[in-house]
């Protein structure tokens, strides 16, 4: 038998094994445990998006959003916002040039004291369509006894689960952000938003940087500067506020509201307002859990299973962090 046929057979067997191995429903603590295997134990640190920086600013809704939606967030005047920019994964020492998603969490504080959270990534899709496939991908990525991941095992899992491929393909085709201020951040999940007539619109959103989208060059990646994003953001803020337009897209009937690994086609949009970052580097976000299921009046969550898993998984991570675990 040729080496090619043997290799193909090995991949097929691994793919079949992986497809059958992850059959039980994923549990929130499963993600905490597998992150520890992937990134090590880091006491008192967020289990996901471990490396990051706090920032403060505000949000002003647009007149168009205020006129169309029956939402407390869009009917208020300018409200204060606490932000956190971050690197993906559970390694607080991950280098800033890594080809991985960046994140932006935001917590809005409305006039009545209620909170509204959003959580975003710099990729337009999530890493899998459901918690089980995402957990399976993470388990396939755990390093072996030699400290290295088994690339054949990962490739086999991705082949057996095509929904785990789009995010990896996007990351391979797009450079890491030059700055936290020059990245586009995507809400990933589908939500519903009530309009003035009481109808609920199916929406997704992204945050579009007014500084424009700019990525690192290959030469800049090769310099391997491990810690530049925080300083670059702070330096940019000396020239004034960093601003993002909150762009809402309106889904159609055939656009999935339960699969965050699928990107919607281009849809009609509305600029819902401007998010401003005015300062960074304080500790304002340290005790915030950026659970995107915390929403103000007018918003409601879809049945996306990844979105639903975030609340209990975030809660476990939050509790461990506050207790120094």
Describe this protein's structure.
The protein has one domain: Beta Barrel (Catalase HpII,  Chain A, domain 1). It has 325 residues and is α+β, with helices and mostly antiparallel strands. 32% of the residues lie in helices and 23% in strands. The chain has helices at residues 3-21, 28-39, 63-68, 72-75, 131-141, 151-160, 166-173, 218-223, 229-237, 305-322, and strands at 52-61, 79-87, 102-109, 115-121, 185-186, 191-194, 200-209, 242-250, 269-280, 299-301. Strands 1, 2, 3, 4, 5, 6, 7, 8, 9 and 10 form a 10-stranded antiparallel sheet that branches.
Quick tags:
single chain; 325 residues; alpha+beta; Catalase HpII,  Chain A, domain 1; globular; disordered N terminus
Give the helices and strands, then pairings.
Layout: H1 3-21, H2 28-39, E1 52-61, H3 63-68, H4 72-75, E2 79-87, E3 102-109, E4 115-121, H5 131-141, H6 151-160, H7 166-173, E5 185-186, E6 191-194, E7 200-209, H8 218-223, H9 229-237, E8 242-250, E9 269-280, E10 299-301, H10 305-322
Antiparallel strand pairs: 1-2, 1-9, 2-3, 3-4, 5-7, 6-7, 6-10, 7-8, 8-9
Helix pairs in contact: 1-6, 2-5, 2-10, 5-6
């Amino acid at each position: 038998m040729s080496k090619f046929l043997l290799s193909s057979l090995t991949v097929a067997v691994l793919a079949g094994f992986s497809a059958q191995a992850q059959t039980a429903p994923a549990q929130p603590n499963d993600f905490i445990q597998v992150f520890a295997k992937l990134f090590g134990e880091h006491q008192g640190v967020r289990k996901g998006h471990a490396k990051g920086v706090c920032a403060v600013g505000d949000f002003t809704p647009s007149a168009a959003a205020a006129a169309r939606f029956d939402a407390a967030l869009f009917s208020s005047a300018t409200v204060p916002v606490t932000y956190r920019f971050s690197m993906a994964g559970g390694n607080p020492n991950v280098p800033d040039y890594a080809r991985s998603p960046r994140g932006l969490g935001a917590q809005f504080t409305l006039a009545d004291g209620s909170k509204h959270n959003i959580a975003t990534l710099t990729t337009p899709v999530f890493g899998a369509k459901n918690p089980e496939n995402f957990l399976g991908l993470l388990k396939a990525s755990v390093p072996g006894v030699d400290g290295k991941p088994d690339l054949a095992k990962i490739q086999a899992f991705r082949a057996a689960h095509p929904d785990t491929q789009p995010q990896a393909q996007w990351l391979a085709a797009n450079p890491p952000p030059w700055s936290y201020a020059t990245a586009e951040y995507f809400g990933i999940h589908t939500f519903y938003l009530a309009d003035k007539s009481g109808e609920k619109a199916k929406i997704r959103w992204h945050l579009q940087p007014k500084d424009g989208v700019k990525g690192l060059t290959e030469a800049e990646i090769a310099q391997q500067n491990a810690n530049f994003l925080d300083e670059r953001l702070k330096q940019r803020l000396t020239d004034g506020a960093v601003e993002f337009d909150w762009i809402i897209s309106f889904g159609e009937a055939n656009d999935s509201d339960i699969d965050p690994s699928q990107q919607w086609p281009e849809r009609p949009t509305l600029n819902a307002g401007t998010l401003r970052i005015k300062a960074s580097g304080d500790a304002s976000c340290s005790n915030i859990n950026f659970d995107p299921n915390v929403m103000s009046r007018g918003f409601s969550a879809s049945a996306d299973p990844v979105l639903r898993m975030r609340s209990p998984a975030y809660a476990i991570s939050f509790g461990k962090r506050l207790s120094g675990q």
